[in-house]
Write the structure tokens for this entry.
Amino acid sequence: MSDKYDFFRAYISSFLHGKPNAEAILQSLADESIKLHELSVAVTDQLTISTASDIYLDKRLAEVGITRPSELGMDDLSFRQMGIQLNASKQVIESIHTILATFYGDETVRASATSGQPEPYFLEDGDILQFVLESEEVHTVTFLAENFDNIQQASAKEVADLITRYIRGRGLQGYAQEYADVDTGLKYVRIFGSAKGPYGLVQILGGQGQTEMEFPTIRATNLPVNDTVWEITRTVGSTHRFRWVSGSKPLLEKIFIEDKALIYGNQFLTVGIYGTFDVKNVRPAQASVAVDAGWFEIDIEGFSALKSSIPDQNPPPNSPGNVYSFTITQAQFADLKFFLARKNTAYGQQRYALAWEPEANLLHIYMPASTKVVRRDLVGSAHLHLLYKSDTLNGSYGHPTDPDQMIQILSDRSFRFRQSGYDASGTGGTVTYGITTKDIEYAFRENGYANVITIDPHGLTPQPPDAFGRVFTTQIAVISVANVPQDDQVNTFLGPYVLDPAAPYTLTSEYVTTREQVLAGENRNSLFVQGALIEQSGQLLFDLNLDTQEGPVPFWANQVSAIAPPVNITSISQSGTNVTVIVAGSHGAIIGSQINISGTLNFNGTYAVTTVPSSSVYTFTKTPSNVLFEATGVSTLVITGTASTLILDPSYQFKFTHDTGSNVSLISDNKAYEPVPNGLDYGAYVTGTADGRIFAEQLMREITALGINLEITIIFPVDTGLGNAGGSDDANNPPTSEKIYVWGS
């Protein structure tokens, strides 16, 4: 019963309560009253800019002189936010930055800093992160266990949400967000400044959180084996010197005065040195150990554990009551890191949209060539080019003890390890460890890691999972990738290609492969697949980029399965060496799959599928040659890797038939792809997408007061090609664009 029903019922005689006709009349009155109330609320919503939608939002903003361009695909949310801020703003430069943020994204008008390491983050209760936003005030975010599901496996979203709550709780307009790299699917933390425009600033100052997240710029002092022995002495006042005395030679030449030292190793904590410190002086390491062979100095206020020593001389021996030095062996890279506390500004980013006021009554505006808001009804073309650097993927990798250098096992057919160099990929080749050699299917290097996928299980011996759940091996492997494509300096561009304007969704890198046939016109409750997606609900595309592509198809969950479901054999016959199997259902096999046969007289065993005439028929070969027939048995697909079951929305009716082995891709957003803000995926410029930029120019000119001149500069990539997201130091071999994404929204 509704509140309206109870309201009307209170005004009639209790004698009529419960009478069918009276109750029906009351319910009818209540229903109509509710409809009138909802209608009045809906009408009221269309009277204000903050709640109006569609044509009513256009009318409300038109009343204050702001119109939505009909030729752009600008949604209500973007148009409303821009309109509200323009209508409220009294300063021209603030209004211009509002327009630029609408068309190009907050990432182009606000300063930001992105972590160098992806989630998860191994934090401890009470760890901190210190940073500055615009002003000189130092902000300290404290990470407490109660803020995380598992603080030692903190997600980027959890960290970003906590930082945002801290910033907004102090009345500032900055924020943090989870940032997903479209190339790798890895998730990072990105912190935005409070101010729009060239005056915005984000500067990370230190804390244990910086050790884990590594905001720019971490100095490259990581060694193959981090076992440097430091002798710590106090020289003058609170200045303390860390001198290399044995072990691996530190890369002190990569450190500069005013860098910051992150000292958070337990062995340093035992002597009372723990925190982030400014580097006051540094001397690069020489060829061999000596009193002046290599050291750095930091200022440790209030630390009185050491007696003062004379610089550039060996300290006197420690004696009772007099401690002149500590000798500390560094256990791993994380114990002692160095970084430049870079001042991140909006104009220091690869892609920015900003306005400067170089002199009175003059505004100079810089705008990228392509906006975030793009026409969806215009087919354009794009020149695409994929660049591979010429350095190799080959070498010997792994370490028996150093966790920073160990090979990490990702699955039974894939593993990764640290490897510096440009991003690259290749196919074929071998992995060798001990007397074992395995063939490589594919290998690629991104963000300082090489990833190798083998054709068959690699057989590396796993160690127990660490605190993050990661699995490493102590084995050392020799990698030899056969085919690493080189850059084509003659045919530098591939294309043009046609942009698909009817793709209102954003794909992720996650996909699975069907192990059952899906029939056109079918409604399915579940689907058996090889691989696994995220555990929560989402949307899927079937047969990506094929004529039978369809979706989005809603799914509710993804349940990991241990084995494939068995199916009964209707008939199994051998003619010569060829065996044909017909099953009562879907066998789930593709060519090359392993099938286990049981419950027969002559065919029990595991075989490799040679042909798949249909989802219920497959063949394999068996020797010796024979002529046999049976009508019983069980066929089970042997899954390599992870198998799972997708729980689909049963209301969805499939429009096409999708055979076994079809690609099923996960959609992250049911909207068009929005390019990443750092500009790395702007290698493809789509023709016909200047409409958004042209309208933004017109809008800025309209809101600019009389007497103020606008100088607008359109920023195009400054290299041969269209990307420069990697660069080249060779003037005779300039860089070319290396990303291959076509985007629109």
Notes: Confidence is low (pLDDT under 50) at residues 373-388, 491-502, 675-689, 718-745. The longest strand covers residues 567-583. Residues 395-483 form a domain with the Thrombin, subunit H fold (CATH 2.40.10).
